[in-house]
Structures are given as structure tokens and as C-alpha cells.
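re: ur question from the group chat, yeah i did fold both. here u go
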Amino acid sequence: MSNDRYSMSFTTGGLFIPESVQLAVLYRDLGDWTAVREKVLTENLLQARTMNTLKRVCHEVISRLKTLRSDELDFFIAASHQEQAYLLWVAMCRRYKFIADFATEVLREHYIVLNSDLTYEDFDAFFNRKSEWHTELDGISQATRSKLRQVLFKILREADLLTADNRINAAIFSPGTLQLIYRGGSRELMYFPVFESELKGMA
């Protein structure tokens, strides 16, 4: 059994790109995540239909943005849509080790061996394999497991790492995004479907 327990609380929504940009800008202005949360909840800045939804989305977005360094947040605010999507994918992998492991052991491995199809069966096989070492996965119901799978595939599509028919898209980095990722440690390139040899000389 692994002592590094998986957090599996990513069933809310998807990548949340516009919401993340909005909260990142707010954090730049206020300089405090608690103040950001209070302002979002008080003024319903995310225009959620219910307070529960607002709280859930706000908590989820902030928990991801907190994984980004100050230089990454600054870059994120001014970045293109695709650059923002890639940075949020990095944030997801930092926030959720389950997603990071899936990204490196399934998504990238498929790409490297030229298997461009990613299926729900791949997710299920990965989940079952990890449950042998992570007993916390045993308590997850089939319905929640299906939701986790659905949300993860949705996030991959929103990050443009997966097509609508579940084929893997190679990551195409701008020099600025690549430099940021290298600054955080080149191992984070493993979260993406990309050959490292293609990146030499770009960062």
C-alpha cells in the first residue's frame, strides 16, 4: 500500500479556463486567496446558479491555481488560450497525483509507442492497477469512478490533448510555456504527449 494517498476530488466540472483566469487576475489585485474566495462568494463572480455550486467551483479553481508559482500566474493571465490550457493541465497534475500518474503512465506512454487511441478501458485498467497499491480507491463507488473518468477525459479534450473521438493530440508548446515548464523541472514535460527530442533547442 502506498503512503502517498490519492486525492480524488476532481469530479467538479472541467478545466475551468475562463474561471481560472478571472480568479488569477483577482489574486493579482488582492494578493490573498482568502480574500479572493470571499469576494467570489459574496458577489457570485462565477455566476453560479446555487451557493453550493459556487463554493465547489471556487474551491476547486483556487486549489489548482495555488500550485502555480507567481511567475506562472503572471504568464497565465496574459497567455493565449492554448498556453492557459497547458498551464492548467500542469496545475491539475500537481494538484492530483492520480492525474499526474495517468498522464505519464498512460497518456504519454501511448503517444511514445505511437498508439494514438485513448479509451475508457485504458482508464479502467489504470484505476484497477493503482487500486492494488492505493486502498483509498477501493471505497470509490462505480458511479463516482465513472464520473472521474468522464471528467478526466473532458479535461484532456479541453486542454487539446485529446480529440473529440479520443485520439491523442501531441502537445505543441510556445517557447514561453516550455521555458516555464523547464523552470519547474523537466519531469513535468512527462505530463504531456510529446517526445523530449523534439523540444531540444526550443527552451
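okk and heres the other one u asked abt
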Amino acid sequence: MNRTSSSAKKPATVMVEGQEIKITNPDKPLWPEHGITKSMYLERLAFLSPFLLKHCKDRYLTTIRYPHGYADKSFYQKNCPEPRPDFVHIARSENISYVHLDNLPTLLWLGNLACLEFHASFDRISNPDYPTEWILDLDPSREEEPRIIEAAALVGKLLESLNIESVPKTSGATGVQIIVPVQQKYSFDQLRGLGQFVGDYLSRAYPQLFTVERLTKNRGDLIYVDYLQHYRGKTIAAPYTPRARYGAPVSTPLKWDEVYAGGIKPADFHLLNIADRLQRYGDLIDLVKPQDLGHVLSFINTSK
């Protein structure tokens, strides 16, 4: 980004990919405990953009805005803010005009509006009926869950036993999501059936750890295997989105070796260190080719 006005307190203007973007309150603290101002946040977003844009493009975007920083009031935004620049593209669905996050200027424009979280739809704009991944969301019932990585490891080993390659990803909050890139030929209902099969197995095999109970009040301290979230019209914290929590965590794909070794926490990955990790590993999701799940779906259908 080339700054054309460098006033510390007044609005600044940056030129990005030929587009002029006005940055208001560049010194506003967004994560004050960590010294992350709006201008610093936008720099981090620019670095994350090749990865974050890839996982938001061709999807309907929901953002969460924190005008006064992560610890203050917030609101969800589905409809695109107005007025919008010409470079901000729209995707319409069910009377909602979503932002189509497909370029860096749009990402920085949203960042200037204090969008601290980016949640992407499971259904794609171009082909909404057939997803390109299947996701299991491991959702702790406690704010602090020291067993979450252990739980993710058990899911990984189960999928391995089913000959399914996957990628674990921190939610950026307290949970972990297991991402399985899939060939784009399975319906949401087929994948939901597979998720139920896996969730039921885990809750029977490890009843002290997992549950498929939908009601939070009935889960106790168990980790919810949420297979229902993966459906058309629902969203996920996009890979590489920041999260509006203490520590400025980032939703980060992991290596299975890291998970199996233990000793890591979702909070370990944040805006201040994510650049080093991405420069070292790149996007770990790219390492898994789209999976053919026919063998598992056939087994489920014949065992009913």
C-alpha cells in the first residue's frame, strides 16, 4: 500500500490496485492490549489477503463490525454497507445484497469499517447446491477447553481410518474445525448424513469427550460434534480470518503432526505471528486434494 497522506490523526488515503481508499482514524486502537491500531490491522489484512480472499471468493460474506475495537459493541452485517465504491462487488441471495469479497481493495475497505471477522458461506455463489468441502465443527461447551486438540486428534485418526484426508483448523475462538476438501458432486444432505455418522460414532466411542446433543444446557462439559452447521445458507469463520477476541487470534489451518503431538492451543496463532507461519508453510488446505467420499457414503447407505 502506498500512503499518500500520513497524518497520524486525520484520515489517510491509500492507493491499492489502482483504487483509492480513505482510511479514517488510522491510529484507532482495535486490539489495544497488543498495540494493534487500525492502520496496523489493515497492513496485516493486506498480508493475509491472498489466503483470506481465496477462501471467501465465490461465497456470501457475513462480517462482524467492531467500530470501537474488539472488546466494545459489535454487530453482524450481511447486507453490503452503503455507500459502496464501484470496486465492491455484490452477490444477491434471498433479498440480501452480500459483499462478494474478491479483491484486496474491498478487503481493506471492509477493514476500514472495522470488520474484524469474516464469515464465508458454505454454499458457493456459482454452484450453491454442491459444496467444495465438508466440515465438522468441534464446539466446546466450556470457554476454556484443554481437551480440544486431543478431540481433534481423535477425529483425524478416525477420518484416516476411513481413508479420508483432511485439514484441522482453529476457529480462532475456542473450537477446532475439520475441513475435508471434496469433489464437487455431493449434496449438503449427503454430507450431513456423513457428519451424523461420524458424530454418532465419536459420541459412542468417547462418551466422556464428545456429544451430538444440540442443546447447550444438556451438554455438560462435552465437546459438541456439530455436523448440522455445514449446510446451505450457513457460514464458517473463514480460514485466516482474524477474530475479535483478546490476543487477536486468527483462524489457522494446522498440520496433523502438530495436533497429534499436542501442546498447541487455538490462541497460539494470531495477527502478530501469522505472517511467519504462512511464509513457512503456505496454505495447508492446498495440500489436500478434493476427496472422493463414495466409498464411505456407500457404506453408510448399505448399513442403514
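fwiw on the second one: Residues 2-124 form a domain with the DNA primase, PRIM domain fold (CATH 3.90.920.10). Residues 2-8 have pLDDT under 50 and may be disordered. idk if thats what u expected
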